[in-house]
Design goal:
CATH superfamily of the largest domain: Probable tRNA modification gtpase trme, domain 1
Order of helices and strands: HEEHEEHEEEHEEHEEEHEHHEEEEEE
Number of domains: 3
CATH topology of the largest domain: Gyrase A, domain 2
CATH class of the largest domain: Alpha Beta
Distance between the termini: 48 Å
Strand order of the largest sheet: 10-11-12-9-3-13
Radius of gyration: 21 Å
Strand content: 25-35%
Number of helices: 8
Helix content: 10-25%
Mean pLDDT: 97
């Protein structure tokens, strides 16, 4: 029996209507699947899927010192983005470990919205407010937003049917703060977590169900609800990191291969000295792609062995629906990270051979 203490998004009744299989996901009662993970995964790759991501957190940063404040908290360079632009970034501890990875929406240099991982909302808010300075206001506005993601090659075509906003004008990692969709005022960004083209829709919680139903009706046979299971296999195939697996307090952005999002030349930020030292000396561990040589499916936190000794662990692994084979990511010592290197993964207490590779993950076909 599901605990009544679980939080529910504004779309809970919609999920029940679609016969979603509900689970406890970090204290939220959310659908892991509807018709099936593989079917939902493949629909997003070929047509479109609709996701409830209302459990994600939103933190508002405003004030005359907002830009400088965010710059000090984040590894990326927020001064490089313009109004209505979006940026992926990370917050780090002084030792280079990751507080969270998140998305920054810039309305102006005095008005930003941070979208943070659901499990980290309280921790992130406390971390941010513990560093607050005069001229900055920090507000947790998570309860004010519902968030719906529409992902897949037909996402724009479907949403354009019910939008007065020209969605083709929204570039990748930009947003329209005053869009209209299904007669509802909302914010729409062209971002996502699946490796496909798609949009994230932010709107008031009391209009979420109406929006969802309008999108599903507009899409017809080209769209269907997708749950947490497909969301995870889609992001994994696209090699997008997941906090708690590829990132965490004991895994730095450089170890995770996210160097692009760490701007060491953009001035001081929390964790800069530790990350600068890692860059200069090289990290002892690196994230590698691998494929299974033996039979077995790798899973997160499975141990990796070489010559009978544990050398690392799997961060994410699965049987890829797109490629039809098991692949994974592992954090290993640099000396064992070259393509062709073989090692064993402990699956059900048995060593199963795997091999370091490159190019094993999904990239969206270019038109």
């Amino acid at each position: 029996m599901v605990s009544t203490a679980l939080k529910r998004t504004p779309l809970y009744e919609v999920h029940k209507h679609h016969q979603g299989k509900m689970i406890d996901f970090g204290g939220w009662e959310l659908p892991v699947q509807y018709t099936g993970i593989i079917q939902e995964h493949q629909l997003v790759r070929t047509q479109a899927g609709i996701f409830d991501v209302s459990h994600m957190g939103e933190i508002l940063i405003t004030g005359e010192k907002a830009e400088a404040f965010i710059q000090y908290l984040m590894t990326n360079d927020v001064t490089r983005i313009k109004d209505n632009q979006v940026q992926y970034t990370l917050m780090c501890y002084p030792d280079g470990g990751v507080v969270d990875d998140l998305i920054v929406y810039r309305y102006s240099n005095q008005h930003y919205l941070l979208v943070v991982n659901a499990s980290n909302v309280d921790k992130d808010y406390e971390w941010i407010t513990s560093h607050i300075v005069e001229g900055v206001k920090v507000t947790n506005v998570s309860d004010q937003y519902a968030q719906i993601a529409v992902q897949g090659p037909k996402a724009q075509e479907i949403l354009q049917k019910i939008s007065t906003t020209d969605l083709s004008c929204i570039r990748f990692f930009w947003f329209e703060p005053q869009a209209e969709l299904a007669g509802i005022q909302c914010m729409i960004s062209r971002t996502g977590y699946t490796g496909e083209d798609g949009f994230e829709i932010y709107l008031p919680t009391d209009q979420a169900a109406e929006m969802w139903c309008s999108i599903v009706a507009a899409g017809g046979d080209d769209i269907a609800p997708a749950g947490l299971g497909a969301r995870d296999t889609l992001r994994f195939e696209a090699k997008l990191p997941l906090y708690g697996q590829e990132l965490g307090p004991d895994i730095s952005p450089l170890e995770a291969g996210l160097n692009t999002f760490v701007k060491l030349d953009s001035g001081d930020f929390i964790g800069r000295e530790a990350l600068l030292q890692q860059k200069e000396s090289g990290t002892d561990r690196v994230l590698v792609e691998f494929e299974m040589v033996g039979k077995g499916i790798p899973r997160s936190h499975y141990e990796v062995y070489k010559n009978g000794e544990q050398i690392g662990f799997v961060t994410s692994g699965a049987h890829s629906p797109t490629f039809g084979k098991p692949i994974g990511l592992a954090l290993l010592p640099r000396q064992w990270s070259e393509p062709g290197e073989e090692f064993d993964i402990m699956i059900r207490s048995k060593p199963v051979p795997a091999r370091v590779t490159r190019g094993a993950f999904y990239k969206r076909p270019t038109k």
